[in-house]
Design goal:
It is a single chain. With about 250 residues, the protein is an alpha/beta fold. The protein has a single domain, classed as Alpha-Beta Barrel (TIM Barrel), CATH 3.20.20.150. Helices cover about 40% and strands about 15% of the residues. The chain is built from ten helices and ten strands. The strands form two sheets. It has an eight-stranded parallel sheet with strand order 2-1-10-7-6-5-4-3. The chain has a two-stranded antiparallel ribbon with strand order 8-9. Strand 5, helix 6 and strand 6 form a beta-alpha-beta unit. The radius of gyration is 17 Å and the shape is globular.
């Protein structure tokens, strides 16, 4: 598929600025048309769906904890179906579950593939979202991301985390072209700046070469482009600045 949702917003970016209703309002006002929820927002899917409809937003993808998918499978499937989510994404693995060898990462990848198989039977897709540790080479020269994705898992590529790992995002996008269905559009502040925001920046204001990488992401198969900032001091500012930048990148 081609790019379908160039203006999506990861709601985790606004988590420190409740309530949800106002978050959805300023996200929509900025020009975003789609949102990506995260694990804490699935308690009342019907009410959430009504809020999305009121704001004029869709939710085509969502972040879910692996434990939610494994241990609350029916509830999470129902939540996804109620919200119109077609791709469930696991965004993180804690340090206690991270491998140190190719075999241990392969074993965790097999666990992800089991979840993907269960979801596929329900007509849903599964994808993995990266941080930086997946791009730190192991002792044998391989990378955790290779063992996690294996030959078939889909990927939501977080470009800025790849750069923070001092890896080349363009090379990895090319490596997994066709399986990169979603991309997190995140920016990095120049060294020493935005320390109060963990060194992240609004899209288009940092050092990430999004003018080049946007096209490379689309060429790799990206359908949904998701703005994210892990710790903005002002979520409305982040939404407005990032939406304006992403509209230009998308030619809108």
């Amino acid at each position: 598929m081609a790019l379908t949702d160039p203006l999506s917003f990861q709601l985790y970016s606004a988590r420190n600025f409740p309530p949800l209703e106002s978050q959805l309002a300023f996200v929509a006002a900025a020009g975003f048309t789609n949102v990506e929820p995260y694990g804490g927002l699935y308690g009342d899917p019907a009410a959430f769906a009504a809020q999305l409809k009121k704001a004029g937003l869709t939710a085509r993808s969502g972040h879910f904890g692996l434990d939610q998918i494994e241990n609350q499978f029916d509830a999470m499937v129902k939540a996804a179906q109620t919200l119109g989510i077609h791709t469930l994404i696991v965004p993180y693995v804690g340090g206690e579950d991270r491998g140190t060898t190719a075999a241990s990462w392969q074993a965790f990848g097999d666990r992800l593939r089991k979840a993907a198989t269960r979801l596929k039977a329900e007509g849903l897709r599964f994808a993995w979202h990266n941080h930086d540790f997946e791009f730190i080479p192991l002792a044998d020269g391989s990378y955790p991301i290779e063992h996690l994705l294996g030959d078939d898992l889909l990927w939501e590529a977080d470009i800025a985390w790849i750069i923070r790992a001092k890896a080349d995002p363009a090379a990895w996008l090319e490596r997994f072209a066709g399986r990169v269905k979603l991309v997190h559009v995140k920016d990095i502040a120049p060294a020493g700046e935005k320390t109060g925001e963990d060194g992240w920046a609004d899209v288009g204001t940092g050092i990430v070469d999004w003018k080049t990488l946007w096209g490379q992401a689309v060429a790799a198969g990206a359908e949904i482009m998701v703005a994210e900032h892990d710790n903005p001091s002002d979520a409305v500012r982040f939404a407005n600045t990032s939406a304006a930048a992403m509209k230009k990148l998308a030619g809108l």
